[in-house]
Amino acid sequence: MFFVNFLVSLWFLTFILDFQVIYEIEMKKGNININIIFRVLGSLLFIEAFFLLISLIVAVIYNEDDIFAFIYSIAIALSVGFLSRVFTNASKKDIGKREGFIIVSFVWIIFSFVGSLPFILSGYIPNLTDAFFETISGFTTTGSSILTDIESLPHGILFWRSIIQWMGGMGIIVLSLAILPILGIGGMQLFAAEVPGPVPDKLHPRIKETAKRLWLIYVFFTIAEVILLLLGGMNLFDAINHSFTTMATGGYSTKQDSIAYWDSPYIHYVIIIFMIIAGTNFTLAYFALKFKFRKVFRNEEFRYYIGFILFFSIIISLIIYYNTSTGFEKSFRDSLFQVVSLMTTTGFATVDYMKWIPFTIVLLFIVMFFGSSAGSTGGGIKTMRIVLLMKNSLAEFKRLIHPQAVVQVRFNNQSVKPQIIYNILAFVVFYIVIFVMGTILMAAMGLDLDSAMGSVIATLGNIGPGIGSVGPVENFSQIPDLGKWLLSFLMLVGRLELFTVLILLSPSFWRK
Amino acid sequence: MFFVNFLVSLWFLTFILDFQVIYEIEMKKGNININIIFRVLGSLLFIEAFFLLISLIVAVIYNEDDIFAFIYSIAIALSVGFLSRVFTNASKKDIGKREGFIIVSFVWIIFSFVGSLPFILSGYIPNLTDAFFETISGFTTTGSSILTDIESLPHGILFWRSIIQWMGGMGIIVLSLAILPILGIGGMQLFAAEVPGPVPDKLHPRIKETAKRLWLIYVFFTIAEVILLLLGGMNLFDAINHSFTTMATGGYSTKQDSIAYWDSPYIHYVIIIFMIIAGTNFTLAYFALKFKFRKVFRNEEFRYYIGFILFFSIIISLIIYYNTSTGFEKSFRDSLFQVVSLMTTTGFATVDYMKWIPFTIVLLFIVMFFGSSAGSTGGGIKTMRIVLLMKNSLAEFKRLIHPQAVVQVRFNNQSVKPQIIYNILAFVVFYIVIFVMGTILMAAMGLDLDSAMGSVIATLGNIGPGIGSVGPVENFSQIPDLGKWLLSFLMLVGRLELFTVLILLSPSFWRK
After folding, report:
1. How far is B335 from chain A (nearest CA, A)?
2. Helix axes of A265-278 and A236-247: crossing angle, nearest 10 degrees
3. Set of chain B residues whose Cβ sits within 8 Å of the Cβ of A398
4. If we measure between CA atoms, which residue out of A496, A511, A506, A507 comes closest to residue A100?
5. Is the per-residue pLDDT at A78 higher than 70?
6. Which residues in chain A are closer than 8 Å to B426, comparing Cβ atoms?
7. Do the beta carbons of residue A286 and residue A258 sit within 8 Å?
8. How far, in Å, CA of B381 to CA of B373, rounded?
9. Could you give the ipTM of this predicted complex?
């Protein structure tokens, strides 16, 4: 055991040294300020250490065999964070656009490596590939798991698994509402938070203030869900874990059967409601909590988001009601739960939808591409992009018939700039290209077409379960190692709106 | 039998009367000149009557029981054509853009209705749905068939089936190189024929002259293929039929087993070469026949087209060679044949690729989306659009890093206008939306996901065979009637570059 720990510590040291080498090269090459990148990433590790500490407390309370794994992990996280601060010297003013891209991408990778330590050190997921897959699946709020017997894990590890998702959810709210719009990715300009900050001109305080307010809402809803789940008879541990993973639209459960473990309509409906909330733009939640409900219901993305959910739920519930002996309420609840779970990209399950008739599977597969609202913790293409795509398609006909006329696409009663429409078109084409290339590669590793497509959309869309052999009652343990790394990469790509990660692969990014 | 004929004739009369009603309405509504539409469509029916006459001659030569079916069909085609000329009075100068869209879409529908008469009247495909499906599948050079025992058909009917495809091929060459670019659809401006016409300023003589030259090339290659197939030991009837359907990238065969019927490498390679030619822009063929080979090889679309074929063929042949006991030459030939057949959207088969390992099926499924070159008889998204999409994706990264820089996409050493790039992005998104909606509808009719996707891409891409239950050794007979009509519609939508047909469904098209 000590040997393993020693090896891991060594590996982290070489990891840092590697970075120093890259740092030297890049400094000469392109004037990217690696100093500040290290400094910021290091500082962020203290946050991860803090959450590890909470998990340690849980482990201590239950007094199981995962305590030392957490202690070691905290020590490593703190030392790496400390070292990266000691050896760097830079001011936050040095963060340019390119440094922003690098930090935003690498924070997930580094958090996932450090976050996989408790799994590895405790011996519950001894394999690095599996542990990394499970952790990045958590941080990106995907929820795809390689675990085949979740109930056998100690409480500390289970708690860590859930809080990873909750942390990831926090990260993505700030990213998608405050940071990515500034980087100008895939029409994200449209999604910029409307939450009024104190100093709107200056970037840094604005992000900080926005983050603070949004996190308060996030915490508020999490606590509300815990209370409601407790009222439904769930125990405190399960209630906290599921509230974490619901609000993060993550979908990790403490039970192998996911939510199907509880045969309670009340619990199902509570989780449905909170999945819907988690899949909503958090700016709207802010307005709702300020009782500005008109502002919420006037929001076009929200209306379409609810519309899509109802549309697919009703169709599927009718199909199930008329094709099986399931009662009406249960048909509706099962359909609504699965549709909400997949559209918000949470990934909880109350039934095995792979056992439904092919048509419903096809519909759910389509739902997986839709995704939640922009500015939520959910993934996918996002309702706003889908709606703008639909509107632009109609406008395209008008343009074809009247080439001279200026046909504008409107959203929330404002006309959308052609540049943003173009960005969104490019985003969707990219999404599909990545989906296709991912499918080819997964098929090359031996998966059949359905499973290859299913595993790719499940991870690229940050959903969790897919179709085929990675359906809701299956898991990702049988995927070959190379496939797990590819899917981990896709989770990150999907989580960061594609371009943030892919831009790092472009040589012109590194040239000045 | 007489009764059936009587009914069909009656149906055609009501068909015409219906049009007169629509005509009255539309005249008042939007000033669309229905007169000229009827006149042009009527005149074109004389062409179809001419090809029916050729098939009649074949039927008479073989003296089988399909002779009267052709005589009746010719009579109906001529009378409908004659009537539409008698009752209309308009000059060709009255063809505006909107009339152009209507004529271009409706000519395929009317040709398919008239063209299905020999099948119905001869009793070999008594059902209207099946006969229409088989005929529009022919005219759009798709090649999806509902027939389960092709060899049992008389020679006249078989010949009609093949010449329908040849006619469709002729139609699409003129459309895609001379007419659609004028209508400005999905970046088609780029594909305009470079074949020098005598009066480049005036539209009508230019189309006529371009058509004449391109058709000469088409006939030349068809005759060349007939001769080469005869040399390979194929009989004259089969050689003519297969040359017709190769050059049209149609894929109808006179044998149930398609090209697998001939176990001759020579025949396979001859057909591969002519499929490749048929999938090439006919403007390039024009240059090749004028010995301007440099102009051909400098063409970027051609280079990528050959590149994609080699890329996929080599990968698949290596997979087959290393995973089965098939010899090297046969592995290569089978892979090349299937890749060329699907990429050019011909649809011939020498093996049942559904029996290959999942990975090769996934690769072939991807190939189905690529399609042939623009300005060929092939369907699909088209190499040029795929290449411009790839190039634009790379440019997108540069734009993201350097928002101020003007990053241009170049093709054939010329910079492509942003408007055309936008058109192509919109086209591809539309293609995928139609594919997805088609898949949902086919799944709603009971097909499983693979078969639903397979049947939609096979028809939308004008390929013929798909994957799943509509694979290369299967057929479309088991698809429900409603599904056959939907797939027929998709063939037309795919054949006419989406917008030409879909624009007719837009209300704003009909308003002035």
Report:
1. 16
2. 30
3. 506, 508
4. A496
5. yes
6. 392-393, 396, 425
7. no
8. 9
9. 0.80
Taking an 8 Å cut-off on Cβ atoms, the answer to whether B429 and A428 are in contact is yes
The 10s digit of each residue's pLDDT in B111-156 is 999 999 999 999 999 999 999 999 999 999 999 999 999 999 999 9
Contact A506 B98 (CB under 8 A): no
- Measure CB to CB from residue B449 to each of A184, A365, A397 and give the nearest one: A365
Give long-range contacts, CB 8 A cutoff, 24+ apart: A23-26. Answer: A26/A510
Joined tokens for residue B384 = 């040029």
* pLDDT at residue number B21: 47
Q: From A398, which residue of chain B is nearest by alpha-carbon distance?
A: B508
Cβ–Cβ < 8 Å for B304, B389: no
CB contact under 8 Å between A184 and B400, yes or no, is yes
Q: Which residues of chain B does A446 touch, with a Cβ-Cβ cutoff of 8 Å? A: 358-359
Write out pLDDT tens, residues A439-472.
Answer: 999 999 989 888 999 999 999 999 999 888 888 8
Q: Do B397 and A502 touch (CB under 8 A)?
A: yes
Residue A508 to residue B432, Cβ atoms within 8 A: no
Q: What are the chain A neighbours of B502 within 8 Å (beta carbons)?
A: 397
C-alpha distance from B54 to closest chain A C-alpha (Å): 40
Closest residue of chain A to B437, computed from CA coordinates: A366
Integer Cα distance of B26 and B300 in angstroms: 44
Q: Which of B444, B449, B508 comes nearest A401 by C-beta? A: B508
Question: Residue A318 gets which letter from DSSP?
Answer: H
Query: pTM of the predicted model, to two decimals?
Result: 0.85
B13-72 pLDDT, tens digit each: 444 444 444 444 444 445 777 888 888 888 889 999 999 999 999 999 999 999 999 999
Chain A CA closest to residue B428 = A429
Q: Which of B389, B400, B403 sits opposite A429 (nearest CB)?
A: B389
Query: Token pair of B63, please?
Result: 């003296």
Distance CA A139, CA A127 (A): 18
Instruction: Domain ranges for chain A, please list them.
Output: 7-375
| Cα–Cα distance measured from residue B265 to residue B337, given in angstroms and rounded to the nearest whole number | 11
Q: What residues contact residue A190 under an 8 Å CB cut-off, 6+ apart?
A: A181, A374, A384, A411, A416, A420
Other Cβ atoms closer than 10 A to B329? 11
Average the pLDDT over B366-372 and give the result: 92
Check residue A95 and give left, alpha or beta (phi > 0: left; psi -120 to 50: alpha). beta
Q: Please determine, for residue B469, whether its predicted confidence score (pLDDT) is greater than 80.
A: yes
